[in-house]
Structure formats: structure tokens, C-alpha cells
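Help wanted!
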Amino acid sequence: MTTFSNDHIGRRTFLGLMAGGAVLALMPGAARALTDAEARSLIDRVVADINRIINSGQSEAAMYRGFEQIFDRYADVGAISRSALGPPARTASSSQLAAFGDAFGEYLARKYGSRFREFRGSDIIVRDARDRSRYIEVLATVALRGQSPFSVSFIVSDRGGSNRFIDIVIEGISLLRTEQVEIRAMLERRGGNIDRLIQDLRSA
Amino acid sequence: MTGWIGRILLVAGLAGLSACTTPDQPVDTFDPYEAQNREVHNFNRGVDSVALRPAATGYGTFVPVPLRMGVANFSSNLGMPGTVVNDVLQGDLIDAAHNTFRFVLNTTLGFGGLFDIATPAEFPERSTDFGETLAVWGAQEGAYLEVPFFGPRTERSLAGNVGDLLLNPVNYVFGPEYAAVIYGAAAATVLDNRYALGDSLDQILYDSADSYALLRSLYLQNRRFELGEGGTGSEETAFDIYEGLYDDILE
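Answered by r_m:
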């Protein structure tokens, strides 16, 4: 059974496995490369942009464009949109997913842009970053004049290849979870037709 | 005094009642009464569109801001003694002292609560209710309910509302002759809140593909966050039943 060449292959395989093992050993490190400080600095930039937009006094349309840029630049819109779509995302074509991602990004900017608009005259302050083992939660508060401050959290991950936020949580209400409910209901209403959903999202 | 003991016993009984429906295992949405709830939801939506929303728009449009704020402050201040009772029942004496100080400050220097001077003085309301007290005592959340005229609740929070009605000292200090003032201010505050929520609530109730499912999700997420029961964004994640929320992104 044991021949020279088999041994040779065996050793190569062994070395290969070692190398593979070394890569695997690095993997958790790679996945955990995102530090609290990095997550916090990402959200510092997001918050600076949001503060700038809501206090700029520009038109509604310009504000929505600004919010869309924030989502494009700092959020993993692709991952959020696939998660919102749920199981149908696995059977959708890549062009459908791309079109859905685009339409979803615009829809988010309009919908949440109008919410953030209500923060006008207030300041969003980043307070803390907490390691939640699989992601980092960056905690911020929104201080509106004459009201108790309320909490906004950003969920940050680097799983998509770069540091991005994958959720915004306002007073416990997760954008991702809320859009899962909404998008799945919209899809159901359209008989599971993703193309119609994409069409309607653009005007939603 | 014996009346009070009886009341507390009655209210403690609500803790048992509120635990009447429980899921076999933790689920993020426990809604065994969904069919009835959806009918109530449609009814409530009708009430909102023909009565609450137009009344709130009228109230918000024609009553000047200072007056609306005064009424809302007054009503909120009347709720503080009940909040303090709940702080004590939860064993949270720090919040009890904080809210008591707030109540005293606003009742005296704030002219009977018309002005909220405590919030800018770093004494904002630390809100709680008997639903939270029941949670602290170990009662389960129970089933999701949509209650006619009152909207989303859990079984536990509904039991809490009944408890709060019985426990608020204000209801005993002032006799029935003041009921019109107390409940009038509360009703005006409902209008004020509906007016303030304006577009946000319109979006949920009238623009959503499934306003029932959306409202249920929003209510449960926010309620669990307020109670520190491991909703996303809360301090405690040990009992986070949203643990799976990011699974498909982070897998």
C-alpha cells in the first residue's frame, strides 16, 4: 500500500493541510479584524454626514440624495436588501438581486431620510462601541431640544469585505427587522413576483 | 390602608393572569390570536381615520403650542406618582427618588405640572409602568394583542395598564369630581401624541403592505427595548431573542 509516491503525495497533502490550517487559523482573526475603534470611527463619519445633511437646510430631494450616498458609502446595502427579501433572495437571479439592491437603497434613503429629517436641529452623538462577538454595536444618542435623548445604534460588520453598517436601531426598532416585515409583505402581495416588487419599490 | 393592601393583592393577581398564555419555546412573535387581532386592527384603523386623526389634526392646528405643551406636561406630571409606586415595587429606589424629585419640582415651581422644568434641570422622566413591574416580578410577556381603541399591547402590558389605573395615588387623592380634568388632560395628550407622530404613524397605518404585521413588529421591538428584554440596541443581550437577526448576513 505505501509507496514512495503515495508518501510524497501524503506529505504534500499534509503540507497543504498545514497551510490550509494556517489560513483557517487566521480566518477567525480575519473575521475579527474589525475593532471597536474602527467601527466607531466608521460611525463617527456616518454621524458627521447625517448631522451635516439634517442641519444644512437643503431641499428634501437634495437631502434624500445625501442619505442615499451615506447608505452607498457606509452601509452594506446588498446584504441588507438580500436579508430583507429573505428566502426568495436565494432563488432570484443575480440581475434581479442587483436591481432589487438598487431600488431598495433608494427606497431606504427616502423612507429613513424623512425620519432623520425630524432630527433637524438636534445632534447625534456617538457614545460607545461594544463588541457583540459577531458584530460591533456602536451606540449613539439623539438629543432633541426639550426632550429626553433617545438611543440610536449602528450594527457594524466587516463580513462583506469592508467595514460597513448592516443595521440602524432606533429605540430598539431595527431597520433590518422592520424592512424584513415590510418587504416580505410587499412581495407576498405581488404573488412573489420580484420584478413587480422592484418596479413598485422605485415609486414607493 | 387596608384598601391599599387589597389593591396590591388584586394587582399582584394580575401578575398571575398575565402569564396565562405562553409559547412552548421563545419566539420573537407570539400571536395566537392573530385572526381576531387583525379584525381589531382594521377597526382601530377605521377609528383613527374617521376620528382620532382628524381630531388630532384639529387639535394640533388650532391649539397653540404653549397650551398643548402645558396640557401634556400637566397630564404627564399626574402620572409621576404612579411611576414612583412602580419604581418602588420594582425595588428601584434610585429611580423612585429621581422621579419623586421630578414630581415635586414640577408640581411646585412648575405650577402644578404645567411647566416641565425638571427635564432641562437634568431630571427627565425615567418612565416605567406596571407592565414593567410585572416583568421585573418574572411574568412572561404573553401573547400579542391589539386592543380596541388602545392599539398594540402584550397580555402583560394590558394587565399592567389595569394595574396602573388601580395603583396611581392621584386617582385616590382627587375624587371623581376631578375625573373630567384628569381624563380630559389625558385625552388631549393622546391627540397631541397622535399629532406629533403624524407622518410616521400615517406611513405605518396607511402606506404599509401589511400595517398589522408592521405595527406588531414595531411595538414588540420597542416594548422589549424599553423593558431591557434583549431587543436589539438594549444594554442586555444575554436573552437576545433577535440573536438570529443577522445570521444570514454574518454567516
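OP: Thanks! One thing I noticed: The longest strand of chain B covers residues 144-147.
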